[in-house]
Fold Enamine deaminase RidA (YjgF/YER057c/UK114 family).
Amino acid sequence: MSGSTFEEEIGYARAVIDGDRVHVSGTTGFDYTTMTISGDVAEQAEQALRNVEAALAEAGCSFADVVRVRYLLPEREDFPPCWPALRRRFGDVRPAATMLVCGLSDPRMKFEIEVDARRPA
């Protein structure tokens, strides 16, 4: 568990290991130690990536093992400010990726990410 109260309240896991696959649930920019979130989309992306990194590490993976990414943002114009953070994590990995514009569960959320990874042998 990530420390997010959402997992207990809603009833889901931050990440699930299925054989050699790891599926990381939709992860936002909340800092789970303080349950706070920045109003800046780029900062939300950075925190979301730290949250994903922790989930991957707990499953024995890293960003290098990610094969699929889904980005969810309420506003399409908020995506480009996130690119530098995404490039730092995925620039050499080049996972398959999709960006969706959609509503998120809390109006403070501006960025959400889901990833699928393959566990190293």
User: Anything to note?
Assistant: The mean pLDDT is 93. The chain has one domain: 5-118. Strands lie at 15-18, 21-28, 66-73, 96-101, 112-118.
